[in-house]
# Entry
Amino acid sequence: GTISCMKRAKKTTTRRLALIFSLSAGILLSAFLVARSASLSPGSLIKASENAVYFFAENGKRYVFPTEKIFYSWYYNFSEVKTISDAELASIPLGGNATYRPGVRLVKVTTDPRVYAVEGKTLRWIMSEAVAETLFGTTWKEQVDDLPDTLFADYALGEYIDHLNDYSPAFARNSYVSVQTTITPPVPAENPVPDSEIPFIP
# Structure
């Protein structure tokens, strides 16, 4: 009886030690991942084993580039992207989608013929081809990217553009020099574009 009790006690102690070790290892791993995440500099481009690339923001969250065209509106290539572990990436909260850099490309929704200029996280409808050509040149149609309907919610509708003084691509680019400058909730315009108004722009 005494030997049996001693064996049971030994097994119980072993299980407890294993549990404590497992919990400690988990805590240490979590602390390590948090420390590694904290060591990333805001503004870093990161990825793990998958192809998705993220912008690491000042709020400690990661923002995914949902399309290559959105990525290339900010960067020329992927040379600055840092590869981290899947576990480390998972320890960084997901903040949402990165959006187009203002003043670089024009966008249109696949189910809507209107063409928009980007300003912050706001889409501003360009009301005529003449204005589009004046602002973006004779090749403006080649600068239009289709924005998937699923990404339309990342933006708010702003004031429309019907005069060349209403918008400056150069000013927009210089005002938003980093993805960080666009990480704010979109603010709807006081007078958004009526859905019933369809522009001439194809």
